[in-house]
Amino acid sequence: MAQVMIIYGYMSYYLHPRRRIIKIIILASKIFLSYKFLGFKKPFSREESFRQKQKKLHQKNAEMLFESATSLKGVLIKIGQFLSARVDFLPDEYTDVLSKLQDQIPPADFNIIKNRLIEELGEEPSVIFKSFNEEPIAAASLGQVHEAVLKNGDRVAVKIQYPKIEDVVKADLKALKLIVRFLRKQFKDLNFDVLIEEFSRILQDELNYIHEGRNAEIFYDNFSDDKEIIVPKIYWEYTTLKVLTLQFVEGIKISNIEEIEKANIDKKELATLLLSSYMKQFLINCFFHGDPHPGNIFVQEGPKLVFVDFGLMQRIPSHMREGLLNTGLSIIKRDSAGIVQGLIELGFLSRKDDIRGIERVVGYFMEKYRDITPREFKNININEISQEIHDLLRTYPSVQIPNNFILFARTMGMLNGISSKLDPDLNIIEIATPYAKRFAYEGKGWVEGTIAKGKELGISLTNIPRQLEDILRTSNRGEFHMHITSKDINNVLNNIHSVLHRFLVLFTIIIFMLAYIFFQNNGRFFETILAGAATTVFTIILICSFLRNKPS
User: Fold this and answer.
1) Residues with catalytic function
2) FRET label pair with 494: which of 25, 64, 287, 355, CA 20 to 30 Å apart?
3) What is the DSSP string of 10-40?
4) What pTM did the predictor assign?
């Protein structure tokens, strides 16, 4: 097995992949066992004394993780950056130490970086650029960034991938798989394999800088009309698989609260701008920035947001968008049944599951956590949350995490962490509510909107057999009681007739609209007029039925 060469600053060493894997496993074991041993001491310690010991252990483990990440780099940097953004969830001892991984990573020796640049671009930096700063402005998990000026005077940022980083990533993923194998035995109800598979796929995408450049261009186009969002442009003539050249952008790091306050930037307005930009990414563009740690988002006066680092992006397929939107709107409306239907659409649940039981569990979690602020959430005992999740998965083992949801969940966690630092009393749901309602049918034409409404009605109709089955099951257990008169029966039958009538009319409207579009595209004038007229007539009939006889 080939050796992996890493050179950082004055320190140069060769690390065999097997030794790297062992180091990572030892690190994970130390952290895991330290908390196990502390847990054994809890029954014999006073509450205040135990809390102090816990804080010291948090500090010790955070520093140990930071030191390992800065020396080994690779995937450990990614993990540390993710944890550093979870100020809403993790103890301050962790986030304070690990936040240094956002912009204080020791850089690689410039000679190594220079050789990589020459290999990729074909010439010395002095030939390609008017000036090239040998001191990096940022160092990350897979590469580092240098400021430069092109021959035409454009100021750029040149992102250069570390040599042999592919071997480092492979070794780290092997280590994580071994750790997951251990965790699988400890937490049998959690499917860690899905997490590690998705993490592997994401890392492979990040190693391709051409892929990142294309992501940046798509993101740029999506926000080209939004003056509050700044995205650097790509210089393709100076970009390869391992080197990425972008427009140089500046700003205040979004976690630097002191500098933001000095610039008289409203933090609440900034949090709202951040969340609204992501609502647009999730629900309108269906393409989002999946690595929003504070080192990748900067702030300018306005306020304006500057996004950088586009290696970790994800498209949201239409079914996932609908599931997210329906789940979000149901959370806003406190509709447990709607949330469960949204989770089914997203792939967390199957229609064969005990839907009623899950609705009760969802109702419990919603009442407990829906209106909680980040400040309040941080004060909750993490063991309590872990136990609740464990109990849920044990009771409903069929609950699973869809692959395409993992990066979304990670992104939401990091956003919640950043937002809570800007405003600890912020409630994401309250901020998201107007955007979710506005985006529900935004971007859909009249045809698509009508079809979506028809789909909702169709889903309601398909739920009738299941609801009848629930009624019969309840009745068989002797738990069903009902008082009904002949007038009530007539009302029910009339309502069923009205719903079916409207559904058939709506279905007819959709057919004629599709015919209208088809004939118009094929230049058939007479048929287009007929289809348009029929659509208008049936639409009027549908509107009149709503005005004349609303269901009781």
Assistant:
1) 291
2) 355
3) TEEEEE-HHHHHHHHHHHHHHHHHHHHHHHH
4) 0.67
